[in-house]
């Protein structure tokens, strides 16, 4: 893992670098002449070996963030790095290499990740061909947890829930340093979900795998170490063992609690007063809208 001096490529893998980091990350989709801002300044750091759940309402930007981390979509603006590799500057070739050697991908729609004419085991072996890392045994462990250890059917003949098990087995078998999963257990019943989560968490802990997964399922999120809530293309809140917190953005902004949003629409005036070194008091200007003496023209 030595730096290559004299190389013009700014992409040096560093053992110390976060698994993923982004700052002021923006993504705009252009569709038929209209711009849709899916990410509006996301700041997030995921350390190696850390397990992180991404939550948030539909349309909040979760899948967009995941496809950017996967190197599939280039961000419109801002910085995003995987283990020190800058995703907006990396060549197509180094992105491909990153996906092969470092990332495990399980994107939305399990079957898009799979060879449908191959068996489950065939998919694992195909994914591991020529791979420096990777363990077919880990793939089989996942298949077994999902009840598919001896199954000769092609994946195309399997149910959506079975395909989801295979997709997870393929992604885990590569022993990725960062596993990216979009709703990885959405098709599974609770029993299968819990068994697969056990394997996922065990393997990740043993291998030092970082996980970034999108889920709507509180049980799945609860197995991760951090829960990040996206809202309107930004990190709104993070839940830790001690509570649920708003997250200060790189620009110093924080989002209002959901419950206040209707009462305090965009453009509302608030007073922000420091009431101590660790405390801010935010009050709606409406609540203090009695006539104020001393203001020019304030009396009528
Ligand atoms: P989530 O996964 O949280 O539901 P997405 O990242 O899929 O959110 O979507 C965020 C926003 O970007 C939404 O407004 C969505 O309609 C839009 N969007 C997502 N993918 C595309 C795309 N391929 N083309 C255009 N707009 C998109
Ligand atoms: Mg999504």
TrEMBL record:
- Keywords recorded for this protein, A-Z: ATP-binding, Nucleotide-binding
Annotated ABC transporter domain ranges read: 23-257
Which top-rank group of organisms is this from?
Bacteria
Q: Where is the composition biased (Basic and acidic residues)?
A: 278-292
Pfam families attached here? ABC_tran
List every stretch annotated Disordered.
268-300
Q: Which InterPro entries match?
A: AAA+_ATPase (IPR003593), ABC_transporter-like_ATP-bd (IPR003439), ABC_transpr_LolD-like (IPR015854), P-loop_NTPase (IPR027417)
Asked if the keyword Nucleotide-binding belongs to this entry, the reply reads yes
User: SUPFAM superfamilies recorded for this chain?
Assistant: P-loop containing nucleoside triphosphate hydrolases
The record ties this protein, via SMART domains, to: AAA (SM00382)
The protein's GO terms of the molecular function aspect are: ATP binding
- In its UniProt entry, what is this protein called? ABC transporter ATP-binding protein
Report the source organism.
Answer: Frondihabitans sucicola
